[in-house]
UniProtKB/TrEMBL annotation:
Pfam families: Peripla_BP_4
Alphabetized InterPro entries for the sequence: Peripla_BP_I, SBP_2_dom, TAT_signal
Protein name per its UniProtKB record: Sugar ABC transporter substrate-binding protein
PANTHER family from the UniProt entry: D-ALLOSE-BINDING PERIPLASMIC PROTEIN-RELATED
Amino acid sequence: MAFIKSFIEQETSRRRDFLLASAYGLAGVAAAGAPLGVFAQNKPTVAWSYRDRNNPYWHSVVSGGESFLESVGMKKSDLVHLLNGGSSEKSLADIKALLAKTNGNAAIACDANDAPNCRPVVESVKKAGGYVSTIWNKPDDLHPWDFGDNWVSHMTWSDEGPSEQTARILFNAMGGKGAFVGVGGIAANNPAIERRNGMMKALKDFPNIELLDYQPADWATQKANQVMQGFLTRFGNKITGVFCANDSMAYGVLEALKAEGRKLPVVAYDGNAEATDLVIKGDLLATCFTNPYWGGGVTAALAYHAAVGTFKPSSEPREHREFYGPTILVTQKDAAEFKKKYITGTPTYDWKDFWGPSRGQIKYAGKA
């Protein structure tokens, strides 16, 4: 697991670089992601607003976005990277700056970082006349069809069910008894909330298992490593299992366990290449794949094609405006085959087939 130690070191370096880059504002970010000449073209500037490309999940998302650009005759380097480092304030500021630079001639793919930030993002895009497609985070009462064509679509993943499945795998591996700890994402993130809810739902069926503590680690490997070290100090050998809300945090957890000479059942989420290898080796019990490559490509494609007039979002049914992306549970028995299909060989996608792999319209609690 040498890559985990390297991953933690990269996160430390990335945080330092992010703080330095933030001082330069959008100009510095745009220069890193695309030449400024792109802003002067008639085609919309295509941008991805996201957290961190050093994270394998987001690297896959943005790689999908780059693949889409190539499908319309552009270059990978034409994609503008709006890196927010987990800051909702920077996410919004960078999007506003991009809209100002392009006079609204922009097609933006975006994870708003947390649910409250989605509203000011989409309001800013609509006001400027740009187009945005979002993933993961938005309030339940905020919908693309309330913004005409400018908020093209929102995609999320139904995380509660898959997280319940991974939690059950963990609890069964613990023999239906003992005590575990949980490491979660950013508290206001929709996926962080749903993944914890799924875990708690599974726990109801295991009365002999105790949840010792559940702490956020903001989706970050280094912070998860610190959180797990704290758990080990507080609870010691009482811990007999670990639930992680994503793969990157699981890497930090595994490194903390290794430092203490302990091997415990651990489950994760995202289906990254590194996590899949850990499942094959038996270091992780399970992960859950959300096909971030397809998600990243189709989100950029939807925003772009709406901007150039290929289709009119407001003419589409609601299941094309808000929809679930695909999920695949990955366990040791099927991890090798999964890796062959989705990681070693990346499937080829038709980026105009916007809703092919999707799983239907988003449903909200208490509503049919």
